[in-house]
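Reply to dn_fold:

You asked what the input looked like. This is it:
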Amino acid sequence: MKLHTYFRSSAAFRVRIALNLKGLAYVPAFVHLPRGEHRAPTYGAINPQALVPTLDDGGRLLTQSLAIIEYLDETHPKPRLLPGDALSRARVRSLAMLIACEIHPVNNLRILQHLKRALGQNDEQVNAWYRHWIADGFQKLEAELSRGATGDYCHGDAPTIADCCLVPQVFNAQRYQCDTSPFPTVMRVFGECMKLDAFDRAQPSKQPDAE
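and this is what came back:
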């Protein structure tokens, strides 16, 4: 497998965690987002969305992190990243989507660049935007996790796709010096995840392209 990745990409971070949890070896192919390498025609031929990650599994190209993780879970089912029963699967997907579809999109690189370049926001204004939406999203996430707390992780006693999403988002919050103290359940789950080598090895600072 080849993973087109960027060390700071939250979406790529999620997939790196999933690959590590499943013990799947992969070759990283680095796409430098701030330099615009994702917009190059050569990468566009691989991923017309011009986003990372892209997983190349024997010539089969997969995009969008949640879809990639579900593909890995179906093709390499141990350990499971989605629970066996329908109700639990729905809860785990809901938690993952809260992060990947509600919190992350308003704070990703192209949004922050647009705030600066097109709307003339300075660094402090952009950081205030980021912190606002982290606080808003983490408040919702904290409530959901607290309501259904049943183990060490987002759902039960083993990591799921929800944990693959939670950890990168907390890393981003810490990078922007967001106050995470109002979210003890989020941070407890984060701490449990980071005890596992699969999460630790996937973190941005440990990637070969880290700057």
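The chain is about 50% helix and 10% strand.
Hope that clears it up.
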